């Protein structure tokens, strides 16, 4: 079937993903990126940045839950959490479900992402007024460089792809600053693209850079994400001075909040590695 102009398509490197749209709700060029919002026929509201799908109503819960709960239930006592990027506030909402978190600071370079999310994805922003939430609009690279050494328990990097303002968020220099900002037992989680498409180009180099920056253990998580290229996504976890042991598995079993995707069985299975992925990442 030929696609007419009622479809949004993300097309990159010989692969296209298309969503049929009812209407374009918003478009603007910010100093950092072009943001578009659409109402789609089957996935609800869609946010696009620079032509790439960021989130849809229908499937964002998988990504946001997997960016937050595995790392928070792997760290022994995550009190001070920093989210770099994540301007749609979905990861912030998940992080604040953890009562042991005393402060969650979200640092997105582009305030317009958050303002548009408040308007078009209000359910993702429902915890923005939580007294533990701090919303800053600044470059995450600068924020981490200036952070007090040892002051952060968990850093979650919920960024756009490694181009434009997010490019430096995938560098060894940035990971060194993260390592310094983290306290004992500190952990980092970063969205790391598709196991099928980006293991050689992004995920393996990310593992190498994190180890070069000093992280002792690095682990790949994978999960479905049907509106991202290949429909399959990953997050990379790194631990400052312990092995990534998922040691709070029991707490995951007894989590005091609702989720739609994540549970204790997913927690246990999230690090299970398909064979090609295991070979490329762990030899
Ligand atoms: N889930 C999405 C994905 O994987 O495509 C990411 C969503 S979130 C909207 C990405 C955010 O990263 C954007 O709001 C963007 O402004 C932010 N960002 C990009 N580079 C950044 C930087 N250097 N510092 C802080 N935020 C940054």
UniProtKB/TrEMBL annotation:
Similarity annotation? Belongs to the spermidine/spermine synthase family.
* Gene3D superfamilies per record: Spermidine synthase, tetramerisation domain, Vaccinia Virus protein VP39
Question: Which EC number(s) does the record attach to this protein?
Answer: 2.5.1.16
| Binding-site residues for spermidine, renumbered to this chain | 64, 88, 158-161
InterPro entries registered for this protein in UniProt: PABS, PABS_CS, SAM-dependent_MTases_sf, Spermi_synthase, Spermidine_synt_N, Spermidine_synt_N_sf
UniProt lineage? Bacteria, Pseudomonadati, Pseudomonadota, Gammaproteobacteria, Chromatiales
Q: Which UniProt keywords apply?
A: Polyamine biosynthesis, Spermidine biosynthesis, Transferase
Binding site residues for S-methyl-5'-thioadenosine: 33, 108, 139-140, 165
| GO MF assignments | spermidine synthase activity
Source superkingdom: Bacteria
Q: Which GO terms describe its biological process?
A: spermidine biosynthetic process
The pathway entry for this protein reads as: Amine and polyamine biosynthesis; spermidine biosynthesis; spermidine from putrescine: step 1/1
Subunit relationships: Homodimer or homotetramer.
Kindly report, in one word, the top-level EC class recorded for this enzyme: transferase
Q: What does this protein do?
A: Catalyzes the irreversible transfer of a propylamine group from the amino donor S-adenosylmethioninamine (decarboxy-AdoMet) to putrescine (1,4-diaminobutane) to yield spermidine.
Keyword RNA-binding assigned: no
- Protein known as: Polyamine aminopropyltransferase
**Domain PABS: start-end pairs:** 5-240
Give the positions the UniProt entry annotates as the active site: 158 (proton acceptor)
Q: Which reaction does it catalyse?
A: S-adenosyl 3-(methylsulfanyl)propylamine + putrescine = S-methyl-5'-thioadenosine + spermidine + H(+)
Instruction: Output the Gene Ontology cellular-component terms.
Output: cytosol
